[in-house]
Amino acid sequence: xxxxxxxxxxxxxxxxxxxxxxxxxxxxxxxxxxxxxxxxxxxxxxxxxxxxxxxxxxxxxxxxxxxxxxxxxxxxxxxxxxxxxxxxxxxxxxxxxxxxxxxxxxxxxxxxxxxxxxxxxxxxxxxxxxxxxxxxxxxxxxxxxxxxxxxxxxxx
Length: 156
Known about the structure:
Blueprint: H1 2-12, E1 18-21, H2 23-30, H3 37-47, E2 51-55, H4 56-62, H5 65-68, H6 71-82, E3 86-89, H7 95-107, H8 115-125, E4 133-135, H9 143-149, E5 152-154
Parallel strand pairs: 1-2, 1-4, 2-3, 4-5
């Protein structure tokens, strides 16, 4: 399965496209004990030349206490952030709607979802933002929007 995925990613990601990356990917990449660590390493090697889109909330989640104490991991992540193809996406226009969605979905028990994932959902639904791929290990929170916008989900 991973071999087929690699071939698809190499073929498709050879163009200068945009990949939005969820927090779980970065946690897996820098934590060798994470169950998705090997998958994250394989994906990272395939996407390193593409445009990597990082919403600010994923930075808050990624650079948590655990990663900030992982000197090797934080140095590697710092290198990613400094790459010219890394886009730090301002989330200010999405904050209010995302907060409202996160609270309502939890209060009403419709689909409890984190605020960070709510912001990612807002970004994915924005037709003015060009996103071709989403890397996540939490597919169920995004599959509806990705299907509608024809955004391919990588990971898992």
